[in-house]
Records
---
Amino acid sequence: MKRKDFLKGTGALAAGLAMTRDLKAADFGRLLHDAAGQGDEYFWDVIRDQFLLEKGWTFLNFGGLGACPLPVLNSLAEWMRVEELSPSAGFDAKEWAAVKVKLAAVLGPSCKPEELALVSGATEGIGMIINGLTLKPGDEVITSTHEHGAINSAFLHRHMRDGVVIKVFEPDRQSGLGNLDRIASLITPRTRLIMFSHVTCTTGQLFPVKEIGKLAHDKGIWFGLDGAQAPVCTPFDITDIGADFYVCSSHKWLMGPKRTGFIYIRTGLLDAVRPMIGGLTNLDIRKPYAEINPTMSRFENGTQNEALFFAMGKACDFVQEIGIPRIFTRAHGMSEAFVAGLRTIPGVELLSPQEEAYRTCMTGFRMKTKTMKEIGDHLAANKIRARLVGEGGLNGIRISFFLNNKPSDVDLALDCIKKLAV
Ligand SMILES: Cc1ncc(COP(=O)(O)O)c(C=O)c1O
């Protein structure tokens, strides 16, 4: 769909859906500007008002599935409506490229839009990287025991299909840099790929990725990161951390529409990853594929729901307008208050790293006398949404604080857990 069609459709939509909340969201930048100078809590109230999140519930699970703010929802509805005015195959290349420019800016000042492909999420991206790399029987890969099923299943498939050997390290939660030694001790001359979570889904642990990336590169090993939990949840510069491959779902902390995400392949490595599925490119079957489409768009398969990705661009605008460092400071501050409170509750064990530098906006904990299900049920009965953590045999709970939360949510969650502890 073309930009002019979009503008035409938007007018029609505005006439049809002139709801107060839509109007409120119409100019988010202006709302923020007006909120400036009226106090920090007022500023965050304005942002909180951009979410449809069910009243009466305390939503502490952005790490599970994020919520889209109104500017993103409105953009999605507008673009979808316009598409239906005159359905056309393919996508608006100019608008598509503009989304990548916005996304690259979120990922760091030297990230290039050409290093990005838009995909459905981390699971698809992980499959593309792990299945796309050339690995021979006996080649070794290193990952952690705290990975999401998306990484585990992709590696297990390669193990079963190609005889790739999987080696695992248990994340060191006492010493962040201890992870470097754990990984180093697994490296052999057969190690080809180190790939694990930038931020774990289990305990919100941030790894010293820059140091691990250097270790990998010094030994000629590929370094991939599953960033499903990282962008916006922790500030970073994708070029600086040295990842060769990076994948992410933008429907979590980036607040894009469900089933949007991206893969990043560092400049120079495009041909290391063989596309497993074809694309829309007009191919001459007599020529090598790489010659015909030497860009990241070779990973953008088939017909797209372009509205999803154009609205993802709007999500990038949303986080940039607020400021990623500002969002992180706020959310991490609440998480730290929560960690401090947890430490005072008898029978509670913190599962997140001991050093603050490796903690993010998610906290993992468990209780000596309660199962994760008992804690989860108790939280749900008190209208608190959190996530149970069975991975790695943790039997714990994960709590995410984000821009939808207020400091009183920390007390609410702590009080609720305290009641279970007595
Ligand atoms: C670390 C990690 N990797 C991968 C995924 C899979 O993401 P998706 O289901 O959006 O593809 C998740 C989802 O929670 C995750 O936390």
---
Amino acid sequence: MSARLRISRTHYPVHALGPGNRLTVWVQGCTLSCKGCMSLDTWPADGGVEASVTELAALWRSAVEQGADGLTVSGGEPLQQADDLATFLTAADEVRREVARELDFLVYTGYDEDELDETRLAVLALADVVVFGRFEVAKPTKLVWRGSANQRMVPRTELGRRRYSGFIDHAPEKGPLQIEVRGNDPWIIGTPRKGTLRNLDRSLKSVGLRVTDTTWRP
Ligand code: SF4
């Protein structure tokens, strides 16, 4: 298995991007340039690190052994590495076929479905649910696991429909967010609501901490 994906990072367990505990893979590289994107660090195609599909499949297997409920692929723009992502999802699917639990695949893309060519659409064949659409800063939302109101959550399999249909219109008072620290770098996992990052800046400032280097400011 020689396919390699350029990724920003991975994390397990993530509980703010889909139901349950999930392995999340953030793919590196995005040319869509959404205004207000909170992940500017994922834009350069030559940033991040290269990971083989074998390594990523091993991470997924390990997460499954630890009780993962699903896999989330976000970015960056996952479909800008369509062939290698398809190889990874195929390998991840082989792992989930071996276990006697239902494990779902959630894929985020900044594209709308009608923008996708056959190659990119084919990647989504193994996704149980897809969140489509650019982040639009002028369309804030409380919809769970979405960054803006235009983004559509579309179940594509029977498992996806069963597990996600109840979340399509779900707008909890508090959206799920997770903060993890790796080395000296904290990072926010999830889809922060309008004002959350500004409030975080202010809160940190109020206790004497100045944030100088963020992924949401150029
Ligand atoms: S929000 Fe997503 S699709 Fe938009 S620029 Fe950022 S990484 Fe790319």
---
Amino acid sequence: MTMTYEGVNRQAVAELVDVLGAERVVVTPQGRLIRAMVPAPFPFHRWADEAPEIAVLPETTDEVVAIVKLANRLRIPIVPRAGATGLNDGAKPNRGGIVVDTKRMNKVLEIDTTDWTVTIQPSINMLKLNERLAPYGVWYPDDPASYPVSIVSGRIGTGGWSLLGSRYGHVRDNVISMEVVLPTGEVLEVGQGGGRKIRHSSTGYRLKDLFLGHQGTLGIATQATLELYPRPEAEFPAFFGYESFDAGYRAMQPFCRSNLATLAGVILFDERKVQYLRRDDEAYIPEPESLQSIVAVAAYGSEGEVAAARDRLMRIGAETGGRYLGEELSELDWASRHDRYATPLHGRSRDRAVHMSWHCEDAAITYSQLPFVKQRWHEIADRYIAEHEVFDNWGMFFYTNNAYKGWGDFLVEIDIGIWEQRLDEDSWRAWTNLKREITQVSLDAGGSISACHGATREGEVELVPAELGGQFDLMLKLKRMLDPNNIMNPGKYLLDQAYEDGEG
Ligand SMILES: Cc1cc2nc3c(=O)[nH]c(=O)nc-3n(C[C@H](O)[C@H](O)[C@H](O)COP(=O)(O)OP(=O)(O)OC[C@H]3O[C@@H](n4cnc5c(N)ncnc54)[C@H](O)[C@@H]3O)c2cc1C
């Protein structure tokens, strides 16, 4: 192996090579730099500062245990990494150290068609997993927009949200149990209480949730048992246009409360999102200017149920004054949900088309507060855009946010185009201030800072204690207890505060 980087901890490299072999211990500059890359906006001039010193590619739980024990003994930071599509920098090292790139832990261990579970090494993505499950007539329905590229273990790390959650639940509902390597190297089986296929138990505390959404700060998931569902026989998406945001906002409620078990999601696009679609998506160009908001709905299930849902949803659309946008637009737009934001898009700056990439901020907000949050977020974004040509406003949407139902709070997202090549210290500062201001609005509205990505980045992480109150103090105690040496993804979620008395 060629040592090309002077900062590498040579003792750690030598021990890691003993465990993994030289080809699975990466110290080359490009191998390290690529593992500092995430899709969240990034000031390029700082890239090299964020690279790990070593990246490792384990294939088994025993190898992960050996890596974690070594890191704990030598007090080297360790960062779990899956698909690296997380939008909150979770998989980016804040303190260098070792990135544990888990992508080779992608085996399907058991497909159980009697008790309807699948047990996997969790670094497989949902697309590949479902290809394996298809011959059995079952599927794992986690469906983020990043479906083909994010990985089950990263979904566990963020506790992510699914586009089909109102019908099939979200990650927290569909991971039944896990094997986790704790920061000290111990292996913990964590689930609903009992065996790894038990979905409901009333014994003890519900600890499973602690290990879903911790952003790699409490351990590394090395195995997971997941829920299976019958593959849907039919799906029905429908898009309805309204002449104002208010009309679309009012129409959402009857759709959300339609009493349809097949309802997978309801989405409201605001007028700025419609403007953006009309500008950048040719399917929307023929739509009349009077179209100011869109409500999109989707139903999944058996053929008979979906046929009945179709009739009811079309009736609600008509009764609320919605204009059905037609089969072609409805089906194609729904089908593009996995790739809409994946490619860099062109944005606008001072009426010029420039190369921008997509970024978003999200929050969980109750229905009653959506108009307030929408107005304030746009005001804030537009103020920064007026001063900084690197930003563009790509509109907002509001999406059902709860498992197995259409009501409750909503995932609110504002999409911002960023001309990343031009992001310098000044505009980076502006971006984090923008985030902080819109995060404060979410808290003012009684909401949560994030509905699905987590809140570990500069600009929002500072407000986490304000949202969580006493729960944040408990987080600090738990972190200190499980990770006495602060080696597991340190620097995230202000958890360093757990060690501020100098011990540990
Ligand atoms: C175009 C696009 C669309 C998106 N749409 C959605 C969406 O609809 N819904 C949604 O929820 N998210 C969405 N995301 C965000 C992203 O896909 C999710 O955050 C995803 O859950 C992260 O998965 P990943 O495999 O990329 O994990 P990574 O980004 O690699 O890691 C995410 C976090 O998990 C931790 N982690 C990784 N592996 C492990 C492990 N084995 N054990 C413990 N912790 C671990 C990491 O340290 C990190 O903190 C989108 C992202 C993009 C780029």
---
Amino acid sequence: MKSSYACQTFLELVNIDCVSKEEEAVSKVIQQKLTELGISFQEDKAGKSIGGNAGNLYVYLPGTLPGSVFFSAHMDRVIGGKGIRPHVEQDRITSSGDTILAADDLSGVAGVLDGLRRIRESDLPHKGVEVLFTVAEEIGLLGSKHFDYSRIRSKEGYLFDGDGRLGTIVKSAPSQAVLEIEVFGKAAHAGCEPEKGINAIIGLSRILASIRDGRLDTESTANFSYIQGGKSSTNIVCDYAYCKGETRSKHHENMLDYIAYFHRHAKEAVGDLNVVVNTKDTLVCEAFDFDRDTAVVKNAIRVCGDMGIPCEVVDSGGCMDANIFNVHGMETVGMGTGMEEVHTFSEYQWLEDLHRIGEMIERITR
Ligand SMILES: [Zn+2]
């Protein structure tokens, strides 16, 4: 079992140093695997557009049944993913504890490659198969945002990038936006003429002390996580302060309401302090939320049943490439791959799940 195609591919990919925008070496191995399977692929120009060294890889495998299905996984990983030394244990693969494992999302990549291999080596009829291996997912879904969707023919998609066991079906993910505040005050000598200065830190403090954040309602959150500014010399009144945060909501409209409030509040909260306040919001992605009786969710549930694995339909609090695919008209759910504790040094991958992703993919195309 340990030496399955999926497991070998996973270990090979994990051993390659990689971060977002530096996926070239990972991409080259995937390309080599596809070539070995006799499957053609195209690399797009996303790498150039985002300042990375690799583009998204697109695969189309014609089917012998009508229709086509879309699968995806991302090639990059979060920081902390260089020098990974994976340990294969009885039922799981771990890192050595001083790096992540990058099961997010190389379990998805290895599983999708295994699915392609199985479809290729089988004589059974199958639908057309489209695959997109994306870049720079972890830094704002950049690869999927820069892909040209006009070539996509599938209406139904499965993104193998969910944490939790194989059989986890992610039916919703939130909208998300990045929020930034800049406060401009006025510098002055703090000892000789402080009354000529305007302290930007005080302005920013007023905004943050009174803004609504944390859990906004049952489906929305906001978090201001980073501040910058000030002078290390205590004799200057601070003239600049900056803050960055984010907001999310399962309902896109609710998020837009909060963003409008955020802009208004930041201007109003400084009161009579004569600072200039600039605010900015940047959309990361738009929410999706499927009913359980949507075709793509029902199909996923059916395949879990056929495979005899427990199925759990969940809502995600995090954005994924599926947010982008759904905006482009492909009904795409997230699928658990058996990765756990992702983005931490405790990350691990269930071996059994890694072995069976390819089988799940093959069954979905039948
Ligand atoms: Zn991921």
